[in-house]
Amino acid sequence: MTRLPEPLTLTSPHGTGSVLSYGAHAVSWAPEGHEPVLWLSSRAHNETGRAIRGGVPVCFPWFGPGRTGDMEPAHGFARITDWQLTEQGEDGEGNAFAQFTLTPADVAAELRASFPHEFEARLRMSVGSRLRLELTVTNTGAETFEAEEALHTYLHVGDAQRVTVTGLEGAPYFDKVSKEQRTQSGELTITGETDAVFAHRGEVRVTDPALGRELVISKEGSDSTVVWNPWADEAVAMADFADDEWQRMLCVEAGNVMGSPVRLAAGESHTIAQVIEVRELPTGVA
Ligand SMILES: O=P(O)(O)OC[C@H]1O[C@@H](O)[C@H](O)[C@@H](O)[C@@H]1O
């Protein structure tokens, strides 16, 4: 294992972020004048071969243990593989961006064996007053394949027990904690270990009175929204989480996972994107 290098900094007049070629992993982002929007564990691993706890891991070509339930490494090999930096610059609208590419040639042979398909994955991170993350997967082989994918965004919140998540009302979801299929009734609050995969296409808002702001999370090309907070016991059990840090994070992930993988015929591409904006809450809401 080797220590990870410093991330690449993306600076625009409206916001600043950073990203590692390892995993094409967005590590930080904050719009000008705001607190960090992405959460990074104080105990995050910082070496090759291990996943980084925080920022935005890219899960691909499977999610969690995959649809067979026994795939390793968890969440696929993309987040523990070095991607190629293929483009970097300013987009003409005041945003700084970086683009990374992953092909099977970049992936260790023992990890590739579980996904023996030809593909190209491209991750573009664009930083300004908004954060845009875009993952495009192309089938560069001759046979159709299915893959799961997710932008596993860790949001920094002031107090997870006081946030409300709106936009998921009425959505069917698989509760990974109770292993039951349910339907979301009303807004979502975090009152215990939360690990839910929603069949959901729209926008989600995370209202965070402790930080006096709302995070507006929109997405494209995504049929699944995953919400995760490990709560106290699970966080204590994880070496890369400080015991009380679960109170200041919430994952809201844009994906195509479980029953909704991406299916690509030879030559086809698919793009999934997640966009985050920060809005101040009117004073008095906290
Ligand atoms: O510890 P990992 O592999 O980064 O995964 C963290 C969590 O990621 C979430 O997306 C999953 O739904 C959870 O089940 C999982 O625990």
TrEMBL record:
<comment type="similarity">
    <text>Belongs to the glucose-6-phosphate 1-epimerase family.</text>
</comment>
<dbReference type="Pfam" id="PF01263">
    <property type="entry name" value="Aldose_epim"/>
</dbReference>
<dbReference type="InterPro" id="IPR014718">
    <property type="entry name" value="GH-type_carb-bd"/>
</dbReference>
<keyword id="KW-0413">Isomerase</keyword>
<dbReference type="GO" id="GO:0030246">
    <property type="term" value="F:carbohydrate binding"/>
</dbReference>
<dbReference type="InterPro" id="IPR008183">
    <property type="entry name" value="Aldose_1/G6P_1-epimerase"/>
</dbReference>
<dbReference type="GO" id="GO:0047938">
    <property type="term" value="F:glucose-6-phosphate 1-epimerase activity"/>
</dbReference>
<feature type="active site">
    <location>
        <position position="152"/>
    </location>
</feature>
<dbReference type="InterPro" id="IPR025532">
    <property type="entry name" value="G6P_1-epimerase"/>
</dbReference>
<dbReference type="InterPro" id="IPR011013">
    <property type="entry name" value="Gal_mutarotase_sf_dom"/>
</dbReference>
<dbReference type="GO" id="GO:0005975">
    <property type="term" value="P:carbohydrate metabolic process"/>
</dbReference>
<protein>
    <recommendedName>
        <fullName>Putative glucose-6-phosphate 1-epimerase</fullName>
        <ecNumber>5.1.3.15</ecNumber>
    </recommendedName>
</protein>
<feature type="active site">
    <location>
        <position position="253"/>
    </location>
</feature>
